[in-house]
Amino acid sequence: MGLEFRKLHPTFVAEASRIDLRKVVDESAFEQIREAMDRFAVLVFRDQGFSGEEQLAFATRLDGELHRKTGISVLQKSRFGDEALTDVSNVNADGEILEAGARQRSYTLANRLWHTDASFQDPRGRYSMLAALVVPAVSADTEFADMRSAHDTLPQTTKSGLEGLHAHHSIAYSRQTLGFEFSAAESERLKGAVHPLVLVNPRTGRRSLYLASHASRIVEQPIAEGRLLLRDLMEHATRPERVYRHAWRAGDFVIWDNRATMHRARPFEDTVHRREMRRVTTLDVGDPSRVAQAA
Questions:
Q1: How many angstroms separate the Cα of 288 from the Cα of each of 27, 31, 54, 87?
Q2: First vs last Cα of the chain: how many Å apart?
Q3: I need a surface site. Which of 12, 70, 111, 259 has the fewest CB within 10 A?
Q4: Which DSSP helix (H) or strand (E) runs through 229?
Q5: Prediction pTM value
Q6: Which helix H or strand E contains 282, and what residues bound it?
């Protein structure tokens, strides 16, 4: 397979040449995709026709272990029968558009915050793969921020000061900033996890900031100082020159590296227009491929 990639942004994101990912089984083909992920961090594949089972199978073949301890699974069971297949839609189990006051809708509103998937778990998320099945006629885009460029463009003194710092990530924290309330039992299952503020891609050696709206505090600093630092870094990371905005088409399949990017959904009239999307996230454990040469 000879995949080609066309850059969609000066520092990251590329669109792949035409391919049916459901038929990709050769390890060399998967390694081409992994190498492109190392280079671009976000890949756009057009005109894919995954079923839920096929999406799960592809994610496993590409990157190994799947993330099943999702935040939404604490609130309700997956309507697809597998917690690894996350429903990123605005419909209920009967396929009807969620009402404005629905608890599920209130929970998913936090997807409009800058975040990285499964940072609240240990092991954290590695790749996310989002399939667009039904796309509204109105704009319902997703934005991505390049956290590698964000790290590279920091002053050297700031970069040095971030080494060795860790942030606590909690999906309960990010939801609670918007007023969402969890029961005591739900909160008990959402303790969060601690991760370095700077990650290093083991395949390339490249550094990236590891931030999210889930980041509640910096472990080594007083709470107020740590939160101010996180706010400053978020503002730096999401400057317009580091952001790509993806306009979805039905059949789009987008893969992104959660260690090297943040993303957020942009608002649309979600109580009027139907949108159905399904996401699978892999865990950052091991490496199913050979170790690549440093980029």
A1: 10, 9, 19, 26
A2: 22
A3: 111
A4: helix 223-237
A5: 0.93
A6: strand 276-283
- The pair phi, psi for residue 160, each rounded to 5°, is -65, -40
**pLDDT per residue over 66-117, tens digit each?**
998 765 555 556 667 678 999 999 998 888 999 998 888 888 888 999 999 9
Q: Alpha-carbon distance 19 to 5, whole Å?
A: 12
* Distance from C-alpha of 211 to C-alpha of 213, rounded to nearest angstrom: 7
Write out the two tokens for 212.
């999210």
DSSP H or E segment with residue 250: none
Whole-angstrom Cα distance, residue 88 to residue 52?
13
CA 202/CA 104 separation, integer angstroms: 37
Q: Can you tell me the distance from the alpha carbon of 53 to that of 107, in angstroms, rounded to the nearest whole number?
A: 25
Residue type, 116: T
Q: Which two tokens stand for residue 187?
A: 């909160």
Give the span between the Cα atoms of 258 and 118, in whole angstroms: 8
- Residue 237 tokens, joined: 């990371």
